[in-house]
């Protein structure tokens, strides 16, 4: 397998660097002065900002020829639920003929990914994955596998999530969760290290567990291959399969107080970038589906 | 690389509760778009759409499982079950971890979202059930199929609006082709959505009566619901157990208009890219293509730009038959491309072209042969199945006739 190189990172996470929902429209206008933020949902604004940060300076490297085939892979747990519920509520309150048609495009989960493609003129495959808590890592895995299958060479991989206010209590009803990770993060990625890169993705595995303790037999070879030569793991505390992880690894667990939603694995990846380790595994777990996704990373 | 066989099909749509009844109704040119009954259309400008009429199996299942699965998941489970039966397999025949579940959906579990928004709007004070937060996520759909069938391979849910089903089939195709899986349920699903109906109504994209793809007097699309599932497996293993091979998936191309959220690129840029990419992957030339299952929504802009893209690939005087089954079942959103792919498999397998119903007036901007109003015999071997979406996401599958002894 050939590596997928993550070259540059861009993010727009609520609560980080002073970003709030109130400031979002102003920040967005700095990058997209021609767009009217009133008609663009928050998830698209967040994703657009994150992608733009990752894209800064890249236009010179990825010229118009590259943009023709440049892919955008977006993961999201909740997709457009926030806008869908808002749009429906508008129709229920004021009648279906009073809703603003400009708000309708915001109700599709691919709104954020499509807008990144439109705003940055990226015409390769544009894919939105709604894969719960593994959405972020699955988007990286999708990029990794597609590059290896010859589908495309350059892409954005990342995720975005925004929770409807009235569903927040459900998201945090687990005793340990009191902060939701809302926002977006994208990496500019390529099959070649055209410039200094942050990290290489060298393997990807995603599996559905029947029990918390068993690696399915048919996955054992992949699972064992995953751990070869690594020294570090970033994995949620109390995740399944822990007894199967090799001993002696440096272990990082993102704070349990934070519910990363579709951005599951970002916190661990950030920790790995700062850690004195050259290779590792980032894991994310989507609890209701018992789905585990892993990426193997190397600096 | 493995060749990828389609050995099972499952469909539920406004014309039938299974694949055979849906196929037969389409061969006969029946139309399932009519005045809405399950949703009150009184306040809307347009009052027609496509609803699943044969709801017995769905309601029985929902009664039995008492809310464990939401509606899109239920449709996906039932169609997957049918696809598996058609393939001649049972869950016990499958290595649980080696079978994936890949689904596409535009609106996900939208009926749950609509129930929650109605409660919220009424300010009823009723707290949403705790499992809503999980069930409202798209991932619920693909997981539910495996959960119900007792399988546990990988899952992916693609939310690329109306092209979602093709994205899921394309991903499953790659997994089987690369030998990463033995089998895959690949499909698209959407339950009838008040949000979609309201939105298209306000965009003035809905036909007030009939959906007339490629006809000069076309007036728009008809919102509908349904599910389509293809069971994919390695061709060699299908042959070794003498399974009937409906068709083979030979290529998948994805593209992007990068033009506008709701309007297609006027020159069909994304459509063209996806068609060319799919044909390149399948290593076929324009002369090899015998039939095209169109996206064919019946809107003025879509049918024109799709025709432009087809003519750019196959020539201005292209006579390849191009049909749109949306004329009969309406636009089933995320299910559309999967149902169309299933019907394309049957078209190749049974040698019958499905009609584009309601075609009345020739349009020189559109394709020359849309198989108007009547099904007809057909002897082709290679088909394309186009699907384009909101946001400019475009897709195309290359499907070839299955080899059966």
Walk me through the structure.
The complex is a heterodimer of chains A (299) and B (405). With 299 residues, chain A is an alpha/beta fold. Chain A has helices at 21-31, 42-55, 64-67, 81-94, 111-120, 135-148, 168-171, 220-227, 266-274, and strands at 4-13, 71-75, 126-129, 154-161, 179-180, 183-190, 199-208, 232-234, 250-252, 258-259, 279-286, 291-298. Chain A contains nine helices and twelve strands. In chain B, helix 2 (56-65) packs across helix 3 and helix 7 (164-177) packs across helix 13 (336-350). Chain B has one domain: Thiolase/Chalcone synthase (Peroxisomal Thiolase, Chain A, domain 1). Chain B is of the alpha/beta class and 405 residues long. The mean pLDDT of chain B is 96. Chain B is globular and about 60 Å long. In chain B, helix 11 (300-314) links the parallel strand 9 and strand 10.
Question: What would the keywords be for this entry?
Answer:
heterodimer, A: alpha/beta, Peroxisomal Thiolase, Chain A, domain 1, two-stranded parallel sheet, 9 helices, B: 405 residues, alpha/beta, ten-stranded mixed beta sheet, two-stranded antiparallel ribbon, 14 strands, 19% strand
């Amino acid at each position: 397998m050939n590596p997928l190189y993550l070259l540059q990172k861009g993010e727009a996470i609520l609560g980080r660097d002073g970003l709030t929902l109130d400031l979002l429209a102003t920040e967005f206008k700095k990058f997209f002065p021609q767009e009217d933020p009133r008609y663009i949902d928050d998830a698209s604004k967040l994703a657009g900002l994150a992608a733009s940060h990752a894209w800064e300076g890249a236009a010179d490297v990825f010229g118009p020829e590259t943009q023709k085939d440049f892919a955008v892979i977006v993961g999201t747990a909740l997709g457009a639920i926030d806008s869908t519920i808002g749009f429906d509520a508008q129709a229920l309150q004021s009648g279906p003929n009073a809703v603003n048609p400009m708000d309708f495009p915001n109700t599709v989960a691919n709104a954020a990914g499509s807008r990144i493609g439109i705003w940055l003129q990226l015409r390769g495959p544009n894919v939105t994955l709604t894969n719960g808590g593994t959405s972020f890592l699955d988007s990286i895995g999708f990029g990794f596998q597609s590059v290896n299958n010859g589908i495309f060479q350059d892409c954005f991989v990342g995720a975005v999530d925004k929770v409807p206010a009235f569903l927040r209590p459900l998201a945090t009803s687990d005793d340990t969760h009191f902060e939701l990770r809302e926002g977006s993060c994208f990496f500019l990625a390529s099959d070649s290290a055209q410039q200094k890169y942050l990290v290489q993705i060298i393997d990807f595995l995603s599996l559905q567990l029947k029990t918390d303790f068993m690696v399915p037999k048919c996955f054992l070879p992949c699972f064992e291959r995953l751990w070869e030569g690594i020294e570090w793991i970033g994995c949620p505390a109390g995740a399944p399969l822990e007894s199967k992880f090799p001993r002696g690894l440096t272990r990082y667990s993102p704070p349990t107080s934070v519910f990363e939603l579709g951005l599951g694995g970002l916190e661990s990846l950030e920790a790995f970038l700062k850690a004195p380790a050259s290779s590792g595994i980032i894991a994310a777990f989507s609890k209701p589906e018992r789905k585990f996704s892993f990426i193997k990373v190397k600096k | 690389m493995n060749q990828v066989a389609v050995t099972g099909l499952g469909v539920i749509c406004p014309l039938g509760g299974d694949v055979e009844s849906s196929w037969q109704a389409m061969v006969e040119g029946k139309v399932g778009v009519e005045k809405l009954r399950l949703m009150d259309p009184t306040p809307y400008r347009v009052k027609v759409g496509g609803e699943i009429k044969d709801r017995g199996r769905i309601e029985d299942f929902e009664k039995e499982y008492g809310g464990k699965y939401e509606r899109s998941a239920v449709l996906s489970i039932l169609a997957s079950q049918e696809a598996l039966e058609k393939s001649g397999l049972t869950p016990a025949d499958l290595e649980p971890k080696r079978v994936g579940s890949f689904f596409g959906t535009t609106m996900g579990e939208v009926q749950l979202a609509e129930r929650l928004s109605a409660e919220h709007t009424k300010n009823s004070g009723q707290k949403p059930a705790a499992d809503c937060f999980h069930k409202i996520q798209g991932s619920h759909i693909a997981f539910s199929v495996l959960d119900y069938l007792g399988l546990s391979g990988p899952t992916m849910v693609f939310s690329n609006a109306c092209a979602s089903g093709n994205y899921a089939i394309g991903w499953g195709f790659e997994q089987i082709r690369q030998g990463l899986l033995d089998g895959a349920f690949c499909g698209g699903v959407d339950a009838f959505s008040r949000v979609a109906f309201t939105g298209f109504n306000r965009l003035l994209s809905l036909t007030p009566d009939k959906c007339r793809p490629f006809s000069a007097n076309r007036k728009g699309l008809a919102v509908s619901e349904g599910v389509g599932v293809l069971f994919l497996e390695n061709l060699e293993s299908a042959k070794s157990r003498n399974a009937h091979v409906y068709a083979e998936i030979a290529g998948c191309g994805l593209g992007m208009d990068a033009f506008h959220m709701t309007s297609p690129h006027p020159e069909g840029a994304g459509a063209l890219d996806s068609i060319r990419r799919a044909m390149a992957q399948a290593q076929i030339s324009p002369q090899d293509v015998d039939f095209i299952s169109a996206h064919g929504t019946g809107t003025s802009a879509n049918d024109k730009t799709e025709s432009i893209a087809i003519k750019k690939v196959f020539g201005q005087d292209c006579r390849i038959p191009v049909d749109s089954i949306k004329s009969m079942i309406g636009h089933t959103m995320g299910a559309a491309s999967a149902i169309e792919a299933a019907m394309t498999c049957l078209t190749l397998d049974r040698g019958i072209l499905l009609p584009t119903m309601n075609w009345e007036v020739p349009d020189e901007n559109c394709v020359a042969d849309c198989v108007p109003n009547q099904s007809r015999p057909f002897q082709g071997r290679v088909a394309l199945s186009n699907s384009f979406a909101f946001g400019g996401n475009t897709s195309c599958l290359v499907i070839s006739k299955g080899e059966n002894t």
